Automatic annotation (TrEMBL):
Keywords: Amino-acid biosynthesis, Branched-chain amino acid biosynthesis, Isoleucine biosynthesis, Lyase, Pyridoxal phosphate. Belongs to the serine/threonine dehydratase family. PROSITE patterns: ACT_LIKE. Coiled coil: none annotated. This is threonine ammonia-lyase.
């Protein structure tokens, strides 16, 4: 494709050279760090764009584009739409250049990104929340630009923006850590992938460029298959920084020549990659920033011995989302599975199950409420460093005569919906137990303090990663005398647990519905 007499790829390379002089007025080069993971695998190098002036790579393209505005364009101001990071780049440039900017953002934009735009832009920026999606914000921003005469600064479908993003690849080339066998580049609209892949292919023609998209937002994959950018009907927004319905026209023209293959990753795989970045580099990545590593881990065996480049494209994540990711099954370090198992509703059977089929496994989540006189259906999420141990669990249950069902990813498990029928209980007692999070501590409490004295009627426990585990336990006794004897004999502190307290009557009434 030619523009102004030159093919687009040549113009892009030329503009990346020009961008070298412009972007470093606004920020400094970011580090390239080695991520070491245990076991065999590739040599992974991480471009730390999360350490940039706006904690994301988008400052490069926005600043490069706004640096070439004419005096008349600067006076008229700029308009853009952003899911967060591009808006921060525009805000940074607006403040530095003294340009007024109106930034349209979806109403669902994380507060951390809104606050960052205000921080970087000061009185030069105005945030306008419009629509529930990035596309709706784009439409509103285009209407504003057409009516006001302001310059629209596109987040990705612009030559200077693509060239600005390409400067991060220039820093990689100049780092001395290359050449690389492969680069895994996340794609939203495609501006970063286009600029970076063009520059890397220029210096290392043999490098494999892998485009990475979320499985529910693969707009570039759809474009490459269709031969042109096409709109997706729906877009998953877990990786909000790459949640783009339609790939940009200019990035598409570059990427169809430079990208060797595409990979899609799931939200669970991205969550695991976020954890690996934290454990390996103490890097807090936003979901879209970890997509490249997620794809590398999917192909880890095939990449053994190879030198691989990934880009942590940003760290602008809402603190609440970070907490949810940390608690998700997807971020688990080990293989895990959620199962519901049927056992006879009689004292001691729960411990028998734990002692036999679940022996040696790490129970990360335990949910149970009594709903039937004859049968109990506790739900467990179990993990293990050995995936084979998880795969063998169903066979062990069947051999022992237990009926089970797979609830991995089930909605009721994820939302911790634990039913409990109060009419089936005789003399219930509920305990708040804080125990030391080590192998056998919870089992020992149930075995030494509860076995033979009461029937387990409720259990609510989820591993949090702390040294202390916390569980809400329901016990049912056959008489008031037995319940009173238990409450009088249980120590508030004991071997293996830090505290055991009886919940108040109001909490008990809410749990059993009376």
């Amino acid at each position: 494709m030619e523009r102004d007499g030159l093919p687009l790829d040549r113009r892009l390379r030329q503009e990346i050279l020009f961008a070298r002089e412009r972007v470093y007025r606004f920020g400094e080069a970011t580090p390239l760090e080695h991520l070491v993971l245990p076991g065999p695998g590739p040599e992974i190098w991480v471009k730390r764009e999360d350490l940039s002036p706006i904690k994301a790579y988008k400052w490069r393209g926005a600043c490069n584009r706004m640096a070439v505005l004419s005096a008349e364009e600067k006076a008229a101001g700029v308009v853009t739409a952003s899911a967060g990071n591009h808006g921060q780049g525009v805000a940074l440039a607006a403040r530095s250049l003294g340009i007024d900017a109106r930034i349209y953002m979806p109403r669902s934009t994380p507060r951390v990104k809104q606050a960052a735009v205000r921080h970087h832009g000061g009185h030069h920026v105005e945030i306008i929340l419009s629509g529930d999606s990035y596309d709706e914000a784009v439409s509103a921003a285009f209407e504003d630009a057409a009516a006001s005469g302001a310059t629209y600064v596109h987040a990705y479908d612009d030559l200077q923006v693509m060239a600005g993003q390409g400067t991060l690849a220039d820093e990689v080339v100049l780092s001395g850590h290359g050449p690389f066998d492969a680069a895994y580049l996340q794609i939203g609209g495609g501006g970063m992938a286009a600029g970076v892949s063009e520059w890397l292919k220029t210096y290392w023609p043999e490098i494999e460029i892998v485009g990475v998209e979320g499985s529910g937002q693969a707009s570039m994959k759809a474009a490459l298959e269709a031969g042109k950018p096409v709109g997706l009907d729906q877009v998953d927004i877990f990786c909000d920084g790459t949640a783009v319905r339609k790939a940009g026209a200019l990035p598409f023209d570059i990427c169809r020549e430079t990208i060797d293959r595409m990979e899609t990753v799931s939200n669970a795989e991205v969550s695991r990659a976020i954890r690996l970045l934290w454990e390996g580099l103490r890097c807090v990545s936003e979901p879209s920033g970890a997509m490249g590593l997620a794809a590398v881990m999917k192909n880890r065996e095939a990449l053994v011995g190879k030198r691989v480049l990934i880009v942590v494209s940003g760290a602008n994540i809402d603190f609440l989302q970070l907490g949810l990711i940390a608690q998700s099954e997807g971020s688990a370090q080990n293989a895990s599975r959620s199962l519901r198992v049927r056992i006879p509703e009689r004292p001691g059977t729960m411990l028998e199950l734990l002692d036999t089929c679940f022996a040696g496994l790490n129970i990360t989540d335990f949910q149970y409420g009594k709903t039937d006189e004859a049968d109990a259906w506790p739900a467990f999420t179990v993990g293990s460093e050995d995936p084979a141990a998880i795969e063998a669990l169903p066979g062990k249950l069947e051999a022992a005569g237990f009926v089970w069902e797979d609830l991995t990813g089930a909605v009721d498990i994820a939302f911790r919906a634990i039913p409990l029928r109060g009419d089936l209980l005789s003399y219930p007692l509920f305990l708040r137990l804080d125990f030391y999070e080590r192998a056998g501590a919870l089992h020992d409490f149930l075995d030494k303090r509860v076995r033979g004295r009461a029937n387990l009627c409720y259990f609510n426990y989820r591993q949090s990663g702390e040294r202390i585990g916390r569980a809400l336990i329901g016990l049912d006794f056959t008489s008031e005398e037995e319940r009173s004897h238990f409450t009088g004999s249980i120590a508030e502190h004991g071997e293996g647990y830090r505290s055991c307290t009886i919940v108040d009557d109001a909490t008990r009434a809410r749990l059993i519905g009376n």
